[in-house]
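Putative 2-keto-3-deoxy-galactonate aldolase YagE
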Amino acid sequence: MFEGVFCPSITITDDDGAIDYELWGRHLDHLADAGIDGVLLFGSIGEFYSVSLEDKKSVVDFAVERVASRMKVFVGVGDTTYDNVLELTRYAQKAGADAVLAVSPYYFGPTDDAAEKYFGGIADATDLPVVLYNFPARTGTDLSPELVARLAAAYPNICGIKDTVDTISHTRKVIRAVRKVNPEFSVLSGFDEYYLVNRASGGNGVLCGLTNVEPELFVRMHGAYQAGDFATAIECAERISSLMAVYDACDLFISAIKVAVNIKGLPISTAIFDPAIQASDDQKATIEQLLS
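Predicted structure tokens:
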């Protein structure tokens, strides 16, 4: 259902944390014009954990209108309060989004039975496609291949996953397990440098942060792979591999991505929500060198 290159957008604010709609709109335009297949609002890079429900609703309305069907719009519905998760899920459908993305509950990581109830409730709350978000390094629990397959079998609109696990073997096992249930189930890797191995394993692409910075590079790689131009695809993958160092340049990877977008020419604030260590001038210089 979903294939290609998807961008988990940074949440663009001013220095005081208010949503900057003008610059965020320009960022969305850049992604769409570059040929990105879809944008995710309020993923991990989108600092979903620090944005109010009302601001999220306002941004969803804005983004759906601004994008105007030039690419897919996914809405991250993660929250520590389940009522908020369900409310934003329903709102995303009302606003005209194309899918919701649901991260596992965190702090008290769910058992498989609790996870089935949690994700099942989200699926029951909407007719939209539901994309699972597996990020065990942050949530503390893993969505196993067997659990993903059970969810796909029980809920037809659970039809994709972003697998942010730093081993392709996990993603490959998810692909094999879930395709027995739904051959059209989309499996996207959350790590930028996994595009080629994801596709070689039968997956559908990536939903990854560096697409904020150089979307054209990822679109070029995807197009080359689709066309069988593997030399070009590998050339792009090598550039992406070198850019992975950007993630480690700041105290938190979200800062690094915002700094990189700023260096690329969009004059956004690089502030991230507190509590956080903001990017220093030295870190910004390091990122500028990496991008060059």
